[in-house]
């Protein structure tokens, strides 16, 4: 049977590293059931004797594994045998490198997973590929991406949800490594959230980033801007370096916009610099970054002495571009420009049309304008007012 690993087992195994052997022993019981189509589906691994109680502390971790092994041998169900192999590997991870049980558990886990993988069991192929990729099965902890790649190919052919990304990531494909990193950080694609491993993939993706796949550099910059627990420390100087690389070398619009904001307002340790702010906003706006387009509207309205001459026509042009991209505040601005005649010939009727668009998107100033103009949108305005509150 090529069934999916049950959610409760995934949660159980992903939590093993956070628990002591005795805690693991007390929680093992009753988790694994036969998921075959048999109408006589019965519990195969009955560990009711391991339930929390005064006797739980008497059970050693070795006893737990021995009983798990004995019960796993009672069935030919590949899912159960795969789960036991995964449990062995996770148990080995929780042991120190000097513990004699660590290589024993890993060797047994590898043997079981290889046997299941050769029989076409996708979850075994996938997990074994992860073990080879992590270097856990190598004495010198060297990653074996050649072996991992072959296994990910096999698992992906069996429609394993995540294996296709792993397959590409093991070839240093920046897009696949980025997607895998984000999925690992946020717990997507059926993966347990693991910020530390996710960041590792993002770093690999960032080092291989191209103009086609620049996202990882920006995401790493965001992480260093905020900091992430004990995984990524806040480093504003480094995050600016990353944003600059993504903007200048990879032409990534979100990074260029972020830099434009930093140099406009003096954020993230940057000095206020109109020249750099306008430069980066323009880089992003030329790629149709909506917020950057509207940011240029402000600069062209006010101008920057010695850097940018004021231009109402340019201000209107960039506001209109942002408004066409459905930015409510830009739609309101275009309505106002049209009403007053800033950079464009006054046209109250078209101004009201823009106010209507902005109001439908919930802009409170546009709602107020429509109310002042006694526009026939009373019921719609009531609804929009509720959404704005």
Give a short synopsis of this structure.
Helix content is 63%, strand content 0%.
Polypeptide structure, described:
By secondary structure, the protein is mostly helical. Among the domains are: 1-119, no CATH class; 326-389, no CATH class. Helix content is 63%, strand content 0%. It is built from 20 helices and no strands. It has helices at 7-14, 21-28, 61-73, 78-94, 101-118, 122-134, 145-157, 163-169, 174-186, 195-207, 215-226, 236-249, 253-265, 274-285, 290-302, 312-324, 328-340, 348-360, 364-372, 378-388. The longest helix is centred in the N-terminal third of the chain and has 18 residues, at 101-118. The protein is elongated and about 85 Å long. Mean pLDDT is 78; it is low at 1-59 and 376-389.
DSSP helical segment count: 20
Q: Work out the number of β strands.
A: 0
Integer average pLDDT: 78
| Share of β-strand residues | under 5%
Instruction: State the secondary-structure class.
Output: mainly alpha
The shape is elongated
Q: What is the gyration radius calculated from CA atoms?
A: 29 Å
Helix-strand sequence: HHHHHHHHHHHHHHHHHHHH
The rounded distance between the terminal residues' Cα atoms is 54 Å
- Identify low-pLDDT runs: 1-59, 376-389
Helix content percent band: 55-70%
Biggest sheet character: none
